[in-house]
EamA-like transporter family protein
Amino acid sequence: MNQDRQAILYGLGAVALWSTVATAFKVALTWMSPLELMWLAVLVSWLLMGILVVYQGNARIALNSGWKTAAWAGLMNPVAYYLVLFAAYDRLPGQEAMALNYTWALAMAFLAVPLLGHRLTVKDVAAGLVAYAGVWVIATRGNVFDVHFADPLGVAFALASTLLWALYWLLNARDKRQPLVGQWQNFTVGLPVLTLLLLWGPGFQWHGGSALMAGIYVGLFEMGIAFILWQLAVHKVSRTAKVANLIFLSPPVSLLLLFVVVGESIYPSTLVGLVLILAGLGWQQRRQS
């Protein structure tokens, strides 16, 4: 099997797992608060990544270097990003939070202008307008000429998560740490912060075995295994666009799972808005590839 085929299989595995996370978030949040889910998922993912770092023989590197970067990066991811993302999922239907979160790639393109000195083209702006038209359709639930949001705070959280995620990756553009080592270090910084927030807030509460398994699933698959598979895909592929376009398979599967498992009725506005968002992203990626 050549490397590109392996990369596509890794990428498909990551996308398959990411397709389940909107459903996993909604199921887990029926029992736990966003902060409780966050703490449990980060703990599980931190343990998984720590085991892999040791298995790969990178424990000494992980312990002895890279902590200056981790000191601020860990506060952004996992702490700030996932707290805001889970808050969005807690307030919005999963279909809306998921669709709005897909605009992070466009947010990255726009933020790269002041942060990295990149230039915006007319196509960048046009792709952004198409995608953010989709955001407006979803946020207003189809009442595009009525400036009224069903849950303004939830929409704000979802869009803020895209800005945080894009900003995190842009600021890490010069990060020389190995991806898995860097992620484990970030979670090592973030976990004590989340523990203090949890103790200061709701505290540790037992919500039953189902809640525990839901939190473990999020930690293993959204934050852990999917990240590892995607890193393998990007590392092995000859051209990034070959795996980057796989992400467009995720939204339809996510919507189907939300309908079947969670029982969400899919709004027509979500479908229209998601088509516009994916069209904008596709236009942007086709230009970059």
User: Anything to note?
Assistant: The mean pLDDT is 86. The chain has one domain: 3-288. The radius of gyration is 19 Å. The chain has 13 helices and no strands.
